[in-house]
Design brief:
The chain is an alpha+beta fold. It has helices spanning 2-43, 45-55, 103-107, 163-171, 365-369, 471-501, 512-532; strands spanning 62-64, 67-70, 75-84, 90-101, 116-122, 125-130, 136-138, 185-199, 202-216, 220-226, 230-232, 238-246, 257-267, 282-291, 296-308, 311-323, 326-336, 339-348, 354-364, 374-375, 377-386, 394-401, 404-406, 409-411, 413-421, 424-433, 437-441, 444-447, 450-453, 456-460, 465-468, 536-537.
C-alpha cells in the first residue's frame, strides 16, 4: 500500500512540474506575441492616433499633433498638440506632453474613452467655461491670456446682441465637450500651465498651474491643484484646491457632491472694489461642501495688516461663508492703535457692492494721531459702504472717549460724528469736555490734507460763552500753542538739569536760562490772551 501511494505521488509531481512548465511557456509565448504586436502597433501609433481622434465623440472639432512617438508599454509622447473647433479657433494648446493608453485596447483596436488611462500636459493653455450649473466646457482663449494679470478684464465683455438673441443662442448652444456618460478612468497631470476660467460674469486668468486629477467617472474625482498668481475678477498670489468630488449616481441626475479645501492667498482688496488704494494682502481658508452647482464654502479670513485712510488694523481674523456669489464676514476681530475692533459685513462678488459695520474700542489717540501730547482712549462705531465702484467707498460713524489729557490740560471726554468719502473727511457735533470748559464745533473738514474749521464754541462751566469765527485767529492760536509747547519743553529740560546738579533742596537756585524760558512762556501766554480778545462774547 505504501509502495502504491509513493508511486502515485511521484507521477503526480512529474505531471505537476510539466504543467507548470507548460503554463509558463504559454505565458512567455503570449507575452512575446503581445510585445511584438504592441511594438508593431506603437510604430504605427500616428495612424492609430488619427483614427482614434476621428472616432471619438466627446471633443468637437479636431485634435492634431506635430510629432508623436510611442513605447510598447503604452506611453505616447507628443509635441505641439492643438485642439480646434470646427471654425478653426484654438481651444487647447500644449507644447509637449504624454498620453498613456491601455495597449490591449490598442492591439485589439478597441478604441474607447476608457482606453486612455493617463494624460500629462506641460505648459498648456486651457480655457474653461462653466455655465449656470457649473457644467464644464472648453472655449477659445480671450486676449487677456497675454496681458499682465493686473490688466485682465474683471468680467467677460457682454455680447452685442439683443436679449432674445442671447436666449435663443443659449438654448441652441453647441458644446465643444460632451461627456455623454462614457466611462472615464484616468489620471490627469498639469505642469506649469495657464488656465483661463469663465463663470457667469466672473473671469480669471491663472499662471503656473500644477495639478493632479484622478478621475473615475463612476465613482469620484480626486483633485490636488495649486496655482501661481491670478488676475481678473480678483487679483491674488495663488490658490490651492484639494479634496474629492463624489460622482456616484450622476447619470441618474444627482448633482456631484463636493468635499474640498479651497484656499485663496494674497487677494488684493482693491481688485475686489475695497477702495482705490488698499493693497494689503487678504487670505481666505475655506472648506467647500454641497452640490456642485451651488457650493457652500465656510472658513477663515486673515490679514496681517489692513491700512485704510486714518486707520491701521493689525492681525485681522474672522469667519467667512460663501454661496451664490455672496461673501458673509462674521466675528471679525483686529488690533487697531492698541485697541480692538469687532466687525461683520456682506460682499457681493458680482456687483462688488458691500456693507461693513464694526465697533472699535479703546484706541490710543497718541498712536492714531502720532501726537504724544494728546492721550485719550477713543472708541467708535464704524460703517463702510460701497455700491461697487472703488471711489464711492463711504465711511461714517460716531466716536467717544474716556479720560485723558492734551499736554497739561485734563480732558474728561470727547464725542462727535465723522464722515469720509474719497479724500474728504468731515467731523460734526464735536465736543471736548474738561473740568472747566466744553469746546464744541459743528464744522471741521479735511479736504485733500487741508484743514478747514468752522465756528468754535467755548463754554466755561461758570456760564461764560465764547465763539471763535475768524479762521485767522485759529492760525494765531496754533502758532502760539506751538510756541508754548516748545517753551514748556525747554523749561522742563532746564528744570531737569537744575535738579540733577542740585546738592539739596535748600541750595537749589533757579538758573538764569530757566528764568528766561519762563519769561518767554509768559509772553507767549500773553499773546494767546491778545488773540482771545478778538473773540466774540455772547
Amino acid at each position: 500500500m505504501k509502495h502504491y501511494i509513493r508511486s502515485y505521488w511521484t507521477k503526480y509531481k512529474q505531471l505537476y512540474k510539466k504543467g507548470l512548465k507548460g503554463l509558463a511557456a504559454f505565458l512567455a509565448i503570449g507575452a512575446i506575441v503581445f510585445f511584438v504586436l504592441a511594438t508593431i502597433a506603437s510604430r504605427g501609433m500616428g495612424v492609430i492616433f488619427n483614427e482614434v481622434m476621428a472616432r471619438q465623440t466627446m471633443m468637437r472639432g479636431t485634435v492634431t499633433v506635430e510629432s508623436l512617438s510611442a513605447t510598447p508599454w503604452g506611453t505616447l509622447s507628443f509635441t505641439d498638440l492643438v485642439w480646434t473647433d470646427p471654425d478653426g479657433r484654438r481651444l487647447i494648446t500644449v507644447p509637449d506632453g504624454k498620453i498613456r493608453v491601455n495597449m490591449w485596447d490598442v492591439v485589439t483596436r478597441n478604441f474607447k474613452a476608457s482606453a486612455i488611462n493617463g494624460i500629462e500636459l506641460n505648459d498648456a493653455v486651457i480655457v474653461v467655461d462653466l455655465d449656470e450649473n457649473n457644467r464644464l466646457d472648453f472655449v477659445p482663449a480671450s486676449p487677456d491670456v497675454k496681458k499682465p494679470l493686473n490688466e485682465v478684464e474683471p468680467r467677460p465683455k457682454p455680447p452685442k446682441k439683443t436679449t432674445q438673441e442671447r436666449q435663443e443662442e443659449l438654448g441652441n448652444k453647441v458644446r465643444n465637450f460632451n461627456w455623454q456618460g462614457q466611462h472615464l478612468d484616468l489620471k490627469i497631470r498639469l505642469r506649469n500651465s495657464q488656465l483661463e476660467v469663465f463663470n457667469r460674469n466672473r473671469h480669471y486668468v491663472m499662471k503656473d498651474v500644477n495639478a493632479r486629477i484622478d478621475l473615475d467617472s463612476n465613482r469620484a474625482v480626486h483633485i490636488d491643484m495649486e496655482t501661481g498668481k491670478f488676475g481678473g475678477t480678483a487679483i491674488g498670489d495663488g490658490l490651492v484646491l484639494k479634496g474629492r468630488i463624489d460622482l456616484k449616481d450622476v447619470l441618474k441626475h444627482r448633482m456631484p457632491q463636493l468635499d474640498l479645501q479651497f484656499d485663496v492667498k494674497g487677494v488684493d482688496p482693491s481688485s475686489l472694489g475695497f477702495g482705490d488704494n488698499i493693497h494689503d494682502a487678504m487670505t481666505l481658508l475655506t472648506r467647500v461642501t454641497g452640490d456642485f452647482n451651488r457650493p457652500l464654502a465656510k472658513g477663515r479670513v486673515t490679514m496681517p495688516i489692513l491700512r485704510i485712510p486714518a486707520l491701521t488694523f493689525e492681525n485681522v481674523v474672522g469667519d467667512v461663508t460663501y454661496q451664490d456669489g455672496i461673501l458673509n464676514f462674521e466675528n471679525v476681530n483686529a488690533n487697531v492703535y492698541s485697541g480692538k475692533l469687532e466687525a461683520k459685513g456682506v460682499y457681493n462678488l458680482d456687483t462688488r457692492a458691500y456693507t461693513i459695520t464694526g465697533v472699535a474700542k479703546d484706541l490710543d489717540s497718541s498712536e492714531a494721531l502720532k501726537t504724544p501730547e494728546f492721550v485719550v482712549p477713543v472708541s467708535a462705531n464704524l460703517n463702510f459702504k460701497s455700491e461697487g465702484q472703488p471711489r464711492d467707498m463711504e465711511v461714517w460713524g460716531n466716536f467717544w472717549s474716556g479720560d485723558g489729557h492734551y499736554m497739561l490740560i485734563p480732558i474728561q471726554s470727547i464725542t462727535g460724528n465723522f464722515h469720509n468719502k474719497g479724500r474728504h473727511l468731515s467731523f460734526s457735533d464735536v465736543k471736548v469736555n474738561t473740568k472747566i470748559t466744553t469746546i464744541s464745533t459743528n464744522a471741521l473738514r479735511i479736504d485733500d490734507g487741508q484743514l478747514t474749521m468752522g465756528p468754535l464754541n467755548i463754554m466755561s462751566h461758570g456760564g461764560s460763552n465764547f465763539i471763535l469765527y475768524d479762521e485767522d485767529s485759529f492760525d494765531d492760536l496754533d502758532e502760539n500753542m506751538d510756541q508754548i509747547k516748545e517753551g514748556m519743553k525747554q523749561a522742563s529740560e532746564n528744570s531737569k538739569r537744575a535738579s540733577e546738579s542740585a546738592k539739596g533742596l535748600k541750595d537749589v537756585k533757579i538758573p538764569d536760562d530757566v528764568k528766561g524760558s519762563m519769561k518767554d512762556l509768559k509772553r507767549q501766554m500773553d499773546s494767546v490772551k491778545d488773540s482771545i480778545e478778538r473773540v466774540k462774547i455772547n
